[in-house]
Automatic annotation (TrEMBL):
<keyword id="KW-0808">Transferase</keyword>
<dbReference type="Pfam" id="PF00201">
    <property type="entry name" value="UDPGT"/>
</dbReference>
<dbReference type="GO" id="GO:0080044">
    <property type="term" value="F:quercetin 7-O-glucosyltransferase activity"/>
</dbReference>
<keyword id="KW-0328">Glycosyltransferase</keyword>
<dbReference type="Pfam" id="PF26168">
    <property type="entry name" value="Glyco_transf_N"/>
</dbReference>
<protein>
    <recommendedName>
        <fullName>Glycosyltransferase</fullName>
        <ecNumber>2.4.1.-</ecNumber>
    </recommendedName>
</protein>
<keyword id="KW-0732">Signal</keyword>
<dbReference type="InterPro" id="IPR058980">
    <property type="entry name" value="Glyco_transf_N"/>
</dbReference>
<dbReference type="GO" id="GO:0102816">
    <property type="term" value="F:UDP-D-glucose:delphinidin 3-O-glucosyl-5-O-caffeoylglucoside -O-beta-D-glucosyltransferase activity"/>
</dbReference>
<dbReference type="InterPro" id="IPR035595">
    <property type="entry name" value="UDP_glycos_trans_CS"/>
</dbReference>
<comment type="similarity">
    <text>Belongs to the UDP-glycosyltransferase family.</text>
</comment>
<dbReference type="GO" id="GO:0080043">
    <property type="term" value="F:quercetin 3-O-glucosyltransferase activity"/>
</dbReference>
<feature type="domain" description="Glycosyltransferase N-terminal">
    <location>
        <begin position="15"/>
        <end position="49"/>
    </location>
</feature>
<comment type="pathway">
    <text>Pigment biosynthesis; anthocyanin biosynthesis.</text>
</comment>
<dbReference type="InterPro" id="IPR002213">
    <property type="entry name" value="UDP_glucos_trans"/>
</dbReference>
<comment type="function">
    <text>Catalyzes the glucosylation at the O-5 position of anthocyanidin 3-glucosides to form anthocyanidin 3,5-di-O-glucosides using UDP-glucose as sugar donor. Anthocyanidin 3,5-di-O-glucosides are molecules that are responsible for pigmentation. Also acts on anthocyanidin 3-O-(6-O-malonylglucoside). Much less active with hydroxycinnamoylglucose derivatives. No activity in the absence of the 3-O-glucoside group.</text>
</comment>
């Protein structure tokens, strides 16, 4: 490298995620991708997140801001939490940008989670590029945007819901915060508020890829500067020849890595992986039906049951199934999904889990819980045809027989052939999207060119 090259200012992005696992992971992985492309990254974590998560290795620096709850927010409701975060966060983000400038590491761009829509205002006050990073699918963003703009009226009165670019939706396919906003008033405001100030953003990134959601992405791109940049799944999992930082870091939960050794001992596509992400709290009865369904299949299973959910497991289930099953409180999910032993993923269809399964070619059994998950489940089954959505009973519980039926559907026999074929197709398309010259890679390059053109 000659001196001129060395002295050139490396564009510097400050990345601000909302401090929950499902939002930290994709923004962190995106940061790593940018860092590999020569961008300097500073991640802004809340003080509490910084104190309570596994610490960082690799190329990304972490600095802290405050959400006003440095010792943890305990059971503070969402509304007062967001209000305080906005007030204290605006101030401390601004101070951090000043500090980085004064210490010779000026920031060029703030990439922010639109759950924190005030961040772009701070970025603009500092004369910086602002980029919103939407952690959910283009389809779900479009539903929220239509509600935000009053084009989709709530409460939903029709039996079928039409949103441009999407298949007709039944009420049960619509994100729970929209279909039942009275039960989640804070969350309803939160998802609509993502569009507050968005017109100030120079880029609107979506963790998806163009080939997955073409029509709806094109429609959204007519309104906002939308760029699909995903999947953020690290390249080494998409293409086993590649190596790069694979760990999630900033992990709120500690993974039980020994499950990988257990998987090593299983044959190809023989194991059912079960996980409901970082937030879902299943009904006791649902846990029991799931457990009994798994037992009835007599197949191997690896089940993530967070410590807070453990007491809902049926008594003596662990002991009775120890020949076949392994239960862990958290696992290295990407490594698990990328393992040849996994044949099926029973998932709540959180967007990260859905996209990770799509891009690693693992057929899904969808058991959505709340938020965007029912929409993701609808698309997995009817559009991407990469899995099946389990049918709940009248009490909204997916029974044991239904669990068995769905597992058989994707893992065995003729009817699962299409799902398994599509699993390969989506894995290939996801890999191509982020490979050099692919749709997501081109969008990232365009962003990098903009940063390079403005960097001093
Ligand atoms: C939340 C919402 O619930 C989800 O609907 C929304 O789309 C994103 O925010 P969460 O419920 O945690 O996320 O689910 P998901 O989006 O699937 O994210 C979970 C993340 O944790 C994934 O990246 C997954 O790989 C990781 N994970 C999960 C682990 O690393 N280990 C585990 O054992 C389980």
């Amino acid at each position: 490298m000659d001196n001129r090259e060395e002295n050139r200012h490396k564009p510097h992005c400050l990345v601000l995620p909302f401090p929950i696992q499902g939002h930290i992971n994709p923004m962190l992985q995106f940061s790593k991708r940018l860092s590999h492309k020569g961008i300097r990254i500073t991640l802004a974590a809340t003080k509490h997140l910084f104190k309570t998560t596994q610490q960082f290795s690799g190329s990304i620096s972490v600095e802290t801001i405050s959400d006003g709850f440095d010792e943890g927010k305990a059971d503070v409701d969402l509304d007062p939490y967001l209000a305080r975060f906005e007030q204290v966060g605006t101030e401390t983000l601004s101070e951090l940008l000043d500090k980085l400038r004064d210490s010779g590491r000026p920031v060029d761009c703030v990439i922010y989670d639109p759950f924190l829509p005030w961040a772009v205002v701070v970025a603009k006050k500092h004369g910086l590029v602002g980029a919103a990073f939407f952690t959910q699918s283009s389809s779900v963003n479009s539903i929220y945007y239509n509600v935000y703009k009053g084009q989709l009226k709530v409460p939903l009165l029709d039996k079928e819901i039409a949103v441009a670019g999407l298949p007709l939706l039944e009420i049960s396919d619509v994100p729970s915060f929209v279909r039942d906003q009275d039960s989640h008033p804070g969350s309803f405001e939160l998802v609509l508020n993502q569009f507050r100030n968005v017109e100030e953003a120079d880029f609107v990134f979506v963790n998806s890829f163009y080939e997955l959601e073409e029509e709806v992405t094109d429609l959204m791109a007519k309104i906002l500067p939308v760029k699909t940049i995903g999947p953020t799944t690290p390249s080494m999992y998409l293409d086993k020849r590649l190596t790069e930082d694979k760990d999630y870091d900033l992990s709120i939960f500690k993974p039980v890595n020994s499950c990988m050794k257990w998987l090593e001992e299983r044959t190809n596509k023989s194991v059912i992986y079960v996980s409901f992400g970082s937030m879902a709290k299943l009904e006791g009865e649902q846990m029991e039906e799931l457990a009994l369904g798994l037992k009835m299949t007599n197949k191997y299973f690896l089940w993530v049951v967070r410590s807070s959910e453990e007491s809902k497991l049926p008594k003596s289930f662990v002991q009775e199934t120890q020949e076949k099953g392994l239960i862990v409180s958290w696992c290295p999910q990407l490594e698990v999904l990328a393992h040849d032993a996994i044949g099926c993923f029973i998932t709540h269809c959180g967007w990260n889990s859905t996209l990770e399964a799509l891009s690693l070619g693992v057929p899904m059994v969808a058991v959505p819980w709340w938020s965007d998950q029912s929409t993701n489940a609808k698309l997995v089954m009817d559009v991407w045809k990469m899995g099946i959505r389990a049918r709940p009973d009248v009490k909204d519980i997916v029974g044991r027989e239904e669990i068995v039926r769905c597992i058989k559907h994707v893992m065995e026999g003729e009817e699962g052939n299409e799902v398994r074929k599509n699993a390969k197709k989506w894995r290939e398309l996801a890999r191509k999207a982020v490979d050099e010259g692919g749709s997501s890679d081109r969008n990232i390059q365009e962003f990098l060119s903009t940063l390079e053109s403005i960097a001093p």
